[in-house]
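example protein:
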Amino acid sequence: MKNHIFGILQRVGRSFMLPVAILPIAGFFLGLGSSLTNPTMIATYNLSAILGPGTPLNTFLTILKQAGNALFNNLPIIFAVGIAIGMAKREKEVAALSAVIAYFVMNASINAMLTSSGQIRADGTLAPDVLKGMVTTSVGIQTLQMGVFGGIIVGLGVSVLHNRFHRIKFPNALAFFGGSRFVPIISTIVYVFVGIIMFYLWPTVQEGIFALGTLVAGTGYVGTFIFGMIERALIPFGLHHVFYLPFWQTGVGGTMTVAGQLVEGGQNIFFAQLADGATTHFSADACRYFTGKFVTMMFGLPGAALAMYHCARPEKKKVAGGLLFSAAMTSMLTGITEPLEFSFLFVAPILFVVEVVLAGAAFMIVHMLNIAVGLTFSGGLLDFFFFGILQGNDKTDWIRMIPVGIVYFFLYYFIFKFLIEKFDLKTPGREENQQETRLYTRKDYHRYNSDKKEFEFIALLVRGLGGVNNILDLDCCATRLRCTLENVDLVDDMILKETGSRGIMKGGDSIQIIYGPSVTIIKSNLETYLAEQGQIPFNYVEEYVEPLVDKIYAPLRGKRLPLQEVPDAIFSEGMLGEGFAIDPSDGKVYAPVNGRISAIFDTKHALVFESDLGAEVLVHIGIDTVRLGGRYFHILVEVGQQVEAGNLVATFDLEAIKAEGYTAITPIVVSNSNFYNEIKVELEKEEILTLIK
């Protein structure tokens, strides 16, 4: 039960990442627009000629400011849609539409209850006994002030309804309303009642939220210290988003009246003050939940990187230096720290414990110094410039961050250096001689993610995850691939490390694999692979159809072999599909089906055929022959060309390939094998494969 809840929390946390991803551009627009249209700033630097009211640049910057405001003012519905997309397992676009509908319906229901109870008068004004800030306007509807929590309630609820009902089947008379069409229908019905329930429940919840925020605020600097430690300590588990988001976006992080409007949440308060020209100094109490990040990300962790470099073995210093410098710059510029943190988290957890304590202290120190620098996503130099330096020291006290940061740089450096040398910690560059010094390198990623190797890479990843049938759901955050599995015990850690993983974390039925910032590409390719293997059915409707029988013929002359005898595990273990192999006696390749050419590899060593009945047949001439770069191969057909079984489609120089040291054994596999109920392999017959669907 505990592991199940942990897995759910991880999914919730990663679903927050999609709506959170919009904050940087929203903050950039708002920060740039507010700063450069501020009358005081324009007057101070005598820029009225180019930035004054009525100038084209002022108009453009005002547009940016309003665009940023529009995004921040509509975060609840953005979160509703983003979370629904993130939590939905299939047909995510239906979940997104359903979330929009549910959000409107819920707030309309609340509005109706407020009106019928007399709290909102017929002219739209509030009754005198309604507490200020209790009612707000969201998407044009007067409703309870639920903030981002309202969006979260909709997003999570709709995703549950979607995952439960998106494949529901009705009798023939009602079949039109089945499947994914039923999701917005049931969401509408459910959220009418959710709105009614929220009318009665939310005022009590709001009181509890404010009480929790008061408790955190009441603990003063100690509370800030504890918050900073918990936020950093949750990084390895991927739960930090779940923890900090309420403090950033809801009343848990405090409330403040800005420009006559009650604003909830530390980040929302900062951006409301940013948009308010009357603000003289941003609230350090509101910024206590994120300003401390700049100290560790811009100064502390680069100091740790320098310590790890100086502790590296002499023969590995050059490699380690390049990797650590790149990771340190990533932390400084963008605030993405995982490349550095995961370089020591698993091999030297004591260093992470030290970082957690120092991070908590950083949050507390900047709070004590009244430093108030906002951020959108993470505490890197870009956010520091836009929301600290550009806003002026009078509003942010950003200059005080510099001496604190310098002290932190040396604290991290000397503490990390001492512990690494004292306990002989195996940080990058200190591995045993036979071990490779690794972090996130462009070379590594391209080796596994290049066009020529992508198919094999994804197949290897699937194998490491226990096979196609073991993968139930997948998603990713900024650096990690997250998978929900049928049986986590089937995972092969060694295979996953071969794919370039820098760390693996398991919890319940889920696993996180750390790849780095390009993980989104891996996730996309893996989704495509699973869809092609039949594991992610789209618009599936079960109905009886007459079985289809397809025949696959031998594309080469020579000795026929079971697929298990191919000297390559990816083929022999059926990772790419079922089939057979041929040890060729000559260099001619014939079409194995009646159909068309659906793909020809750039290196000409492999072709994919699509039969008239839908079988996808890969003919891979030789093993590892991709390395020949097309030498010795000659293709006689084009992609899209129709062929008949037995047509000559390619030739190759068999002896030259063997002379280069490659085996010419050619696997012939049906890449969409999972679409077939039965595949018969009969090597002695003319029709070697019989596919029954």
Observations:
- The CA atoms of residues 263 and 522 lie 39 Å apart.
- The two ends are 39 Å apart (CA to CA).
- The chain is about 50% helix and 15% strand.
